[in-house]
Amino acid sequence: MTILETAIVAARPQALADYYRTVFALEPEWSIELTDEAFAASGLGVPCQVICLRTPSGQRLKFLGPARRPRTGHGGPPVIEHAGAPLFTLVVDALEEVVRASRAAGGGVLGDGTVIDVKPGVRVTFLTDPEGNAVELIERAS
């Protein structure tokens, strides 16, 4: 069995975790400070704070905060033109409500914020979190 968990390197991991808790109602699962040199040798780097949140359906989203401010540079729009640019998808119940909550919590929209009707009952838009990570939002009719 394979389970996918997503991790984001964050300049301010606690603030970013708070944003995702507020906007997407994710629940805290655990938090740890990694200091073991085995993690350094693995290429992750230490020390590193890791905060893990859980979606209502059980997926995990982790925020990794290195001791030194991480380098930025995941491009910008259009995301599709940047190999390795982070983009992940969250399925939500109320697209416009989530976009409003994101903006109120310091997030933005990607591009002009257009909501796209992909097919009957499926709508998509893209936003950015406070650190500029691109997030695809999908709303599916019940």
UniProtKB/TrEMBL annotation:
Superkingdom of the organism of origin: Bacteria
Domain VOC: 2-140
Name the UniProt record assigns to this protein: VOC family protein
Source organism (scientific name): Actinomadura rugatobispora
